[in-house]
Amino acid sequence: MKKGLFITFEGIEGCGKSTQAKLLKNYFEKKGIDAILTLEPGGTKIGQRIREILVNPEFKGILHPITEALLYQADRNQHLKEKIIPHLEKNFVVISDRYQYSTVAYQCFGRNLDCSKIEWIFKNVVNGIEPDIVFLIDIDVETSLNRVNKRAENEKIELSRFELEHVNFHKRVRDGFLKLAKEKENFFVLNGKQSIEEIHKKIASIVEEKLSV
Ligand code: TMP
């Protein structure tokens, strides 16, 4: 398999990762490098349907944690097979707004799910496709919840099923991400309270270094 560059963005709600993912896509476009920007959940047509279930506040307290974890794996499997792998094979840069580390942080840490029970599914879905770079945009939980509440107010939208979770859930998710960042060599942690431009500059310099290797 001819492999392009696989870059993913991770972080808690409102950390600014989607903004940074878009800026990075523009950065590659300006350089004339083929790149796609995609997301989880919802990077494919089938994934969009799965996403509707996953973020729907109507299912808060109903969707079983294992069902939730399996739906994320179903979305990821479709995403990998239909979009990520074919583009990496064509030597594209694939930028994904979230990937499997979100499952570890949200489902295993956030939900306190015993992920060893469904680890074989995780392994078979991801099948060794690890990101070359993971940008973890880190903010504290208070800033996160302030940002999502403000966004919902300004845009007159409902909070998602996860945004409605207790502050302790979000703390566990953040701690999960930070723990992963300590263990994994492909992680780069960025302070999400810096300006959008400052964060983008750091991301661009890390990518620049990777491209020159
Ligand atoms: P988004 O708002 O970043 O698009 O993600 C939708 C929600 O899905 C967000 O609250 C985080 C959650 N999520 C998980 O719980 N597990 C996962 O594996 C992924 C990809 C997302």
Q: What is the overall silhouette?
A: globular
Tell me the domain tally.
Answer: 1
Secondary-structure element order, as H and E? EHEHHEHHEHHEH
Query: In DSSP terms, counting alpha (H) and pi (I) runs of 4 or more, how many helices?
Result: 8
CATH fold naming? Rossmann fold
Estimated structural class: alpha/beta
Low-confidence stretches: none
Distance between the termini: 20 Å
Tags for this model:
213 residues, alpha/beta, Rossmann fold, 5-stranded parallel beta sheet, binds thymidine-5'-phosphate
Can you walk me through this structure?
This protein has eight helices and five strands. It has 213 residues and is of the alpha/beta class. It has one domain (5-212): Rossmann fold. α4 crosses α7 (167-183). The longest helix has 25 residues, at 65-89. It is globular and about 45 Å long. Bound molecules: thymidine-5'-phosphate. Thymidine-5'-phosphate (TMP) is lined by residues 13, 39-41, 54-55, 72, 98, 102-103, 106-107, 160, 162.
